[in-house]
Structure formats: structure tokens, C-alpha cells
Write a structure and sequence with these properties.
The structure holds 2 protein chains of 2 kinds.
Chain A: E1 14-20, H1 25-38, H2 40-43, E2 47-51, H3 61-70, E3 74-79, H4 84-92, H5 107-113, H6 115-120, E4 126-132, E5 143-148, E6 156-159, E7 162-167, E8 175-178, E9 182-188, E10 191-194, E11 204-209, E12 213-216, E13 219-222, E14 234-239, E15 242-247
Parallel strand pairs in A: 1-2, 2-3, 5-7, 6-8, 7-9, 8-10, 9-11, 10-12
Antiparallel strand pairs in A: 1-4, 11-14, 12-13, 14-15
Chain B: E1 3-8, H1 16-29, E2 34-38, H2 46-50, H3 60-64, H4 70-73, E3 75-76, E4 83-86, H5 99-112, E5 115-119, H6 126-133, E6 137-142, H7 146-161, H8 164-167, E7 174-182, H9 184-188, H10 195-202, E8 206-211, H11 214-222, H12 233-245, H13 262-266
Helix pairs in contact in B: 1-12
The chains are: A alpha/beta, B alpha/beta.
Amino acid sequence: MADASIEFKGSSFTLSVLHLRTSNLADIRADLVKKVAQAPDFFYLVPLVVSIEKLESSVDYQAVKTLIEEFNFVFVGFTGSVVKEQRKRIRELGFSFVNTAKTNTAITNTTKINTSEKTATADKSVVTETKTIAVPPQCNLYTDKVHRGQIRSGQQIYAKDQNLVVIGSVSAGAEVIADGNIHVYGSLRGRAIAGAKGHHKAQIYCQNLEAELVSINGNYWLSESMEQNWGSPVYFHLTDSELTSSKLI
Amino acid sequence: MARIIVVTSGKGGVGKTTSSAAIGLGLALKGHKVVLIDFDIGLRNLDLIMGCERRVVYDFVNVINGEATLNQALIKDKRVSSLSILPASQTRDKDALNKENVGKVLEELGQSFDFIVCDSPAGIEAGAMMALYYADEAIVTTNPEVSSVRDSDRILGMLASRSRRAELGLEPIKEHLLLTRYSPKRVEEGEMLSVEDVEDILSIPLIGVIPESQAVLKASNAGEPVILDTESDAGQAYQDVIERLLGETVAFRFLNVEKKSILSRLFGG
């Protein structure tokens, strides 16, 4: 039996990675001061992973942790492709070691964006870089399944590994399901289930909300929760695993 | 080529048979050769509404099974000679029909008639599917209430996916919305869905709005299709449906509450 009060689930998040290029703590501190001064609010309480991959000599791990916590980062752990023994030692010291995702294809975009920043600070000891860890494989792979015309009561349309675009209305008693997003360019009166295979970034858009049920990644609302935006153009998305609706216009 | 028109609804009791009878007779009155087929095997009603129940010798199932020829089973209407009725069997059930043989009968009828009007049974089972399978056009009969609209929506889905035209990838069945038992007064009071509401949900073109009328029940019991009652609003509304089916543009009537004139108020008219 599963525990009723808690549940463990794997999820993927975007985390900032701090690449160390020196083990000299004074240098790191000096560059951190400059960096954080540029945007203090942006860095405040940001979860941070520290990469030791580019270090040539060993560093005082505890001191690094204390240092970055001084700057109000939330220390997550160390990362980098290092020898097994070093990884083991880090863990023995009581720090977690975070492995980056093997599939780097989806990461390319985010790293590219930061390239300019990286070159600008290349001569410095600190490089901040955004890295996506454990990207869900279906991301960015979605194409569209387009349905023209009304989806009638009793009909069910499933866009497997695709987004679903309905040019028409979805009648009461009809069901539209997609592993990606759902767009209804008409009235949504039936049920709409997006992110059916588990995709927390899936969204549902409709021109006129009169739905029986909307669900994203297993989080659902019945029509009684939709009173606020009833009859308006609306989209649904997840914020912190909570289903949220917003007006389209 | 005969036009095969199915009168269907999904829901029962909304006025399919009444409408089939009125439309069949109305088209015949315009000089077209029309055959009315009762697909409601086991619940034979069309012959009652048409007033020919005493003249039924052979029925649709007999023809399907080769026990009678079409000419033996067809009943010629006594009022209009260009109208014939193919009654349903009362003693059999809906499984007595099969696609292949129904197709053959329709083909044979198509050679001598201009219009084949199929009165569908309620539901979405084999009987209703059989009635709509060969259709070129569908008159979706709907009452202005949510359950009827929902069932009509379901049937529209079937028309688009389960008909011969859908299976062969031909031009889809032409859909018409026929709103029956419409009461403008109750719409005004918010008790009934309006024409606009139903059109919005079903989004198919409107072919007619038949007002709720005492004349319909009277006509059914007398075996005289209500279209013959030219004085009644329902009869006139069906006349308009015929005009529209034949391609005429006719303004919709009986959509608003009639304002009583001072005279009729005074004299309680």
C-alpha cells in the first residue's frame, strides 16, 4: 500500500549551475559580489548547483557551500564529470552529488542563450550558466494534430504524442485528449485532457469555456470550478502543480 | 437519382414520425414522387400517423426477406397518388434488417421515386444506424431542451462517421436542423432553449421551427398528417420546411410570442 500522506515522484527542474574555475575562495567571492550586484533580486534564494568539473586542484567543499549561502543562494549539491572517488568523497562529507541528464539535445537551446554571457566572463573565475537537468524526452517533439469541424457528443479524439488543434467546437459529452497542448478554436463544452502521458507544461486553450472537465497532467477541474471565466476565452496551465486558468484576452 | 432523406433524432418522442409524415406528404403535394419508409421495426407507427394502418398486408421485412415484392408491400396514399408508404413490421425486431438488402430495396425504390424519406427509430443502435446509413440528407429533429440537443449532437456524430457516405469518403450527408415543439412563450420565460441556443450548440443549418401545437396531436390521432391542416401554425411551419427542402428561401415564422390585438383581448380571442 502506498502512503496516503506522502508520495515520491520524479520531476525535472531548471537549475542554475555555478562553474568554478579556481579553488581560490577569495577570487570566487570577489566575482560573486560583482555578479550578484548586477541583479540581487534575481539571485535571491535561487537553488544553485556548483560544478567542480573545471577545477584543476581540490577545493574546500564546506567553504564553498558556506560562501554561496552567504550570497543567499540555496545550495543543492555539487556536479561535474569527476572521478568516482571524488564523487564518493563529496558524499562522505555530507553533500549531495547531482548528475546531469545524459540527453543533451534539449539543453542546447538554453546553453546557447547564455553563450554571450559566458564569453564575456570567460577570463573570470565564475561562470553562471542555466542548465536543464533531466529533460522529459517528449519536450519539443510535439507536432500538431488538426481536426476541422465540430467534435460531437460521444466522439473521442486522441492526439498521441502530439498537440491537438480543433478548428470548431467540442460538444458536451465529447472528449479531446492530447499528450501535448489542446487548442479549441470554438466552444469547449466537453472534456479536455492535456498532457495525458504526464507533461506538466501542457496547456489548454479555448475561445469559449463551457467545459465539463479540463485536466492537465492529472490535475483537473470540473465545471463548477470554472465559474469565474465561464463563457470567456481562457487558457489553462499548471503553476506549481496547481491548475490555473487565465483569460486569453 | 432519388434524394434519400433520413428523419432522425437520437432521442425518442421528439416528433420524428410526425415530421416524416408531414414532410413526405408535403413533398408529394408539390407533385414529387415520394416513398415513406418506416424503419422502426417492431414499433410500427408511421402507418397510423398516415392513416393507412388497415391497409397493411406486407411490410418492409417481408420485402427484405423476399417474401413479397415491393409493389405488393407499398401502400399508395389515398389523398395524394404520388405518395407511397412502406410500413414496418410489428412482429419482428430491428435485427431483421441488414445493410445489403436494405441497400437493394433503396436502389429499386430510387428508380421510381424522387424522394425516399426514412423514418428512423430512436436510439443509436442497429435500427437507427440502418435508417441513416444510405442517407444523402438528414433532418435532425430536436426539441428545445438539453437532453434532446445532446442526443441530436450524438446522432450528428454518427452521421459523420457511420454512414455509407462517411465510409466511402464521399461528400458528407447534408444536415438540416428541425426544431419541433417550440414554444416562444416558454423561451421568453427562460424555460426553454431558444433557436439561437440550439443552433449555437449544434451548428448546422436550420430547416424549420415547428411550434408546439394542439393540431399535431389531433392530426396524429386522426391519421391526417398535420401539414394538411393549413389553418394551424404547425401545418404552415411544415409547409415552409417543404419550400426550404426544395431550395426556396422562406422567412422563419412563429419564433416570437404573438401579440394579441386589442379586439381579440376584448373578446377573449
